[in-house]
Design a protein that fits this description.
By secondary structure, the chain is mainly alpha-helical. The protein has 11 helices and 4 strands, in the order H-H-E-H-H-E-H-H-E-H-H-E-H-H-H. The strands form 2 sheets. A two-stranded antiparallel ribbon has the order 1-2. Strands 3-4 form a two-stranded antiparallel sheet.
């Protein structure tokens, strides 16, 4: 378009549409394309998980049994799975496990997320399990487990249905902090946690159960015909004790802890964390 005579300038074409017309809108810069990303195939998942193709096909059938909505599982059905199949019934920890599986934070778990989460939950290498547990206990996601978070977790798993002296829980927090806080800054970083747990595997679930017992894994895998998940999985050589054992004895020494760790299942209030202290 040319400006009025005498200006000698050419005006850029107008981008305003004529009344009653519409033009396609360009995608905003930086638009997140993950929402339209196609789900991974079974073959793709084999490459990024600890599961074989046959395992994933069986796990997919279990996923369908959870009655997914729009190919996703909601929080309620996932919590039912944790409680019914793995004996994890602490509401706070169930919510944290759900959030760790729900990578895209849309409040649903897709099959991709389910498969990747179960890869660690059922058959994770020891380092994967350590990092998983740390994420569970890091309640606010700031990459530290603070004393306040320790208090909330320990009080939640130790005093279920009973009155408890909060000072006693605070004392326990101080004892656990001494074992985990390797750089002595008053909080537990991921490096602190990984270092302490690598030295003493019994500290893996110091703040409550977030991994399954072997007997529950076996039962779950048997339901799915995933027997080979047990081999080389939760009972791998890297963790000679039952993985994720929270059979920690208050006031016990190393020998007492070693004796309790051999127990295949916890008795009575088996899901309450009992922390090993010097």
């Amino acid at each position: 378009m040319i400006d009025p005579p005498g200006t000698g300038r050419i005006r850029a074409p107008s981008t305003t549409s004529a009344p009653g017309t519409s033009r396609p809108r360009q995608a905003a810069a930086g638009t997140n394309m993950a929402a339209t990303k196609a789900p991974l195939t079974i073959d793709d998942l084999v490459k990024v998980t600890n599961l074989a193709k046959s395992d994933l096909e069986q796990l997919q059938r279990k996923f369908q049994q959870l009655a997914p909505v729009h190919d996703k599982v909601d929080r309620s059905h996932f919590r039912d799975l944790l409680c019914d199949k793995f004996g994890i019934d602490d509401s706070l920890l169930m919510d944290r496990i759900f959030r760790c599986f729900d990578v895209d934070a849309d409040n649903y778990i897709s099959f991709d997320e389910f498969a990747k989460g179960m890869s660690v939950f059922l058959k994770g290498k020891f380092e994967e399990r350590m990092k998983f547990c740390f994420r569970i206990y890091d309640l606010n996601g700031d990459r530290y487990i603070s004393k306040e978070e320790m208090f909330q977790l320990l009080k939640n798993c130790l005093v279920k249905g009973a009155e408890e002296d909060e000072d006693g829980v605070k004392d326990l927090v101080d004892l656990v902090l001494k074992k985990l806080d390797e750089d002595r800054d008053g909080r537990v970083s991921e490096a602190d946690y990984l270092g302490a747990v690598a030295k003493e595997n019994l500290l893996l679930e110091a703040f409550g159960q977030c991994l399954p017992l072997i007997k529950d894994v076996e039962a779950f895998l048997s339901d799915n015909g995933l027997a080979d998940l047990v081999r080389g999985g939760t009972a791998d050589a890297e963790s000679p004790r039952r993985p994720g054992s929270s059979q920690y004895l208050l006031g016990g020494g190393g020998g007492a802890a070693g004796g309790s760790a051999g127990s295949p299942a916890r008795n009575g209030s088996s899901r309450k964390s009992r922390v090993l202290v010097p």
